[in-house]
Amino acid sequence: MGAAAISAGSENSRQDRVRQAVLRDMKLSKQGLLDRAFALAFRRLVYAQIWEDPVVDLEALAITPDCHVVTIASGGCNVLSYLTANPAAITAVDLNTAHIALNRLKLAAAGHLPGHDAFYRFFGEADRVENIAAYHDHVRPHLDDTSRLYWEARDLTGRRRITGFAKGIYKRGLLGNFIGTAHLLAKLYRLDPSELLAAESLEEQRAIFDAKFAPVFDKKFVRWLTDQPASLFGLGIPPAQYEALAGDDPQGMAAVLRQRLEKLACDFDIRQNYFAWQAFGRGYGKGPGAPVPPYLERGNYEAVVERIGRVEIRHANFVEYLAQKTGASLDRYVLLDAQDWMSDAQLTHLWAEITRTAKPGARVVFRTAAEPSLLPGRVPSALFHRWHYEAEKSADYTRRDRSSIYGGVHLYVLKP
């Protein structure tokens, strides 16, 4: 998810850009206040882990050794995972200061922690006190000043942010807090989400979901709560995206969330889906066989470490970065779900820059809260028809995206 990485304009501060990226209503209306509240929430750490499936991304992107990939940084997992495909360069941009600090921490850790065991302990387990000593001994000396200050500053609870890696970093951030709240709500209904993680087959996963999870979405309080747009800020869903998501089902947001959770719980082997472990267990599973993102897999470690010099992290606006590039200079673009809250003018500006900078055969991958692509009818036809929409492949990617959050995964390829 990448709420604030793409925006248009030239405000003086990045905080203004974050606000502009999600504001549609400048008035003091209910909608305007919701937009402002989300913009404020999104200035902090949102995603300690990115929620777009990198396996699907890598297949859709079809990265080759000459590719320059431009992506929204978010939690940084996919930035490092893309390195397994051996691209020439990756540029990751984001306006969220916390996400930039997290990405730079991951790069420094990959380059300077003493081996895969230490790297995995830091980001795979992410709840060991030894990680703090590893940070000071191996990572801190190689961090830029801004990132170091971020991690050593105190959060709202008075704890230094780096201590999150001793106590469970994936329980922190806006999304981590949201999942924690969902677990507390589950307990009110005598439901233990982690029970699903012990299932030994898809059939058992289905039985547990149908018997224990599905009925919760029919509770009056849950239906009322999910009808409040602000209740889903913790999922990184701004008001504009909430409207698109809620429109997917006439029974409202509770039905949409039930459908997405059902896919997460029932469509994929729990033993191979680290997104499910994050949702139901609030962290990755323990042990050598636990599912993790590609960048944390032992077999990919040497390739990731060898190639980290190809990654550039920029605290910048996606569109403004593209505007600095020459024509036909980039190969792959990853927009996450940022377009869901863009105006038609912002979409047009973005796609004009993508089209200008794209090499022949360039690919763009993005996600949407609702199922359909949002481009038809919203960008000028002359611009839109420069691109071929891979409809069948997009539907297949949507079906196989293990995060199960999104209604659609979309692939566009520049026509010859």
Structural class by secondary-structure content: alpha/beta
Largest beta-sheet details: 7 strands, mixed
Q: Tally the beta strands.
A: 7
Annotation field: number of helices: 20
Helix % is: 40-55%
How far is it from the N-terminal to the C-terminal residue, by CA? 30 Å
* Overall residue-averaged pLDDT value: 91
Order of helices and strands: HHHEHEHHHHHHHHHHHHEHEHEHEHE
Return Rg in Å: 20 Å
Shape: globular
Strand order of the largest sheet: 3-2-1-4-5-7-6
SS strand fraction: 5-15%
Give start-end ranges of low-pLDDT stretches. Answer: 8-12
Q: Explain this structure to me?
A:
This is DUF3419 family protein. This protein is α/β, with parallel strands linked by helices and 416 residues long. The chain has a domain of 108 residues. It contains 20 helices and seven strands. It has a seven-stranded mixed β-sheet with strand order 3-2-1-4-5-7-6. The two termini are 30 Å apart.
Question: How is this fold's topology laid out?
Answer:
Elements: H1 14-22, H2 30-41, H3 54-61, E1 68-72, H4 77-82, E2 89-94, H5 97-112, H6 116-125, H7 130-139, H8 145-152, H9 164-167, H10 173-188, H11 202-213, H12 220-226, H13 239-246, H14 253-266, H15 274-281, H16 301-307, E3 311-315, H17 318-323, E4 330-334, H18 344-357, E5 358-368, H19 381-384, E6 387-389, H20 391-400, E7 408-414
Parallel strand pairs: 1-2, 1-4, 2-3, 4-5
Antiparallel strand pairs: 5-7, 6-7
Helix pairs in contact: 1-2, 5-8, 11-14
